[in-house]
Amino acid sequence: MLQENHPVICKILNLFFQEDLTEGSVSLLRTGHVSCASKTTNYIQTPLTISPDRDPAMASSLRSLVLDDSRYQECFKLFLQRSTEHQCMQDFIHKELPAILASVGNGKAHLNVIGVGSGAGEIDLEILSELHSKHPGASVDNEVVEPSAQQLHKYKALVAQTPTLDYITFNWNRMTATEFEEHWRASETTKEADFIHMIQMLYYVNDPEATVRFFQSLLSVNGKLLVILVSGKSGWGKLWQTYKNQLCHTDISQCVTTGDIQSFLDSEGVRYQSFELPSQMDITECFSQGDEKGELLLDFLTEVLDFSKTAPPELRAGVLELLRHPDCSVETNGRVMFNNNLGVIVLDRLT
């Protein structure tokens, strides 16, 4: 059973339950974070016959799940129980990330860090702990960018009760990523960042590519920008690619994957490192009509409130067909396991 007070789970929860339904202040996580073991599965490829209707009116008739906080929390808790994501997020932070962090700073005695969409800070503190282990003699200036006053309050409380953080200076920025960019530009500061992390937040900016460009421009020599999003190779990526017009219909979030960001970077000739973080999510009950847990999972997957009851029959049938297709899931021991992978992109300073 996953623990909701686990540091990674708290970070994910923080991304969701913000105060205002505005850019950067609600993070409706469409995937979980990640599973550890990567297994090669041989799929039997069959023709995908879904031909979704692209009528925007269909999307406008559906209500976003995020508008019903009680229902959303219920869906999200079930997602945590059914997915394997948080173990691999932990593995990435504690196994892969340290080598990345070791390369920043170039021996400096002071390091500048920016966390964009930090929530209540649990993940931030784990990252800072790994940074400290690689640069034990360095002091750290940590810019926290988070639009929710409630989450910032929790972050401050966490810092107050966590020992051995005297090497960190925390600067609290209650603002969205866009507001932070505006503030930064207006200040005309020459300060540079040694490490910036943007975990599951690019869904909630108007222009993800421009946001990546801006934060990359803040990097110092040997600085690193860490971006984590849904993988373009995941079932989420296929679901969004097929039903974007019907399901991604709110101003709160948009469908963007690491594949989209990589395509942009490739077109610009920008070099980067990438990691695939395998994860699965058991969605078997989605295919049992009327099953309560299945309906909760369908709501979470589609981000639509009461999807099975309110979606037009052809949309509901098409989504279910796609979810069971090898492009999205694999059947193992009678269970339908959805591809819940995340992707990681690590960027250097622009040269």
TrEMBL record:
Gene Ontology molecular-function annotations: N-methyltransferase activity
Gene Ontology terms describing biological process: methylation
One Pfam family here: Methyltransf_23
Transferase recorded as keyword: yes
Key words, A-Z: Methyltransferase, S-adenosyl-L-methionine, Transferase
InterPro entries: HHMT-like, SAM-dependent_MTases_sf
Assembly and interaction partners: Monomer.
Protein name: Histamine N-methyltransferase
Species in which this protein is naturally found: Takifugu rubripes (Japanese pufferfish)
Designated gene of the protein: LOC101066023
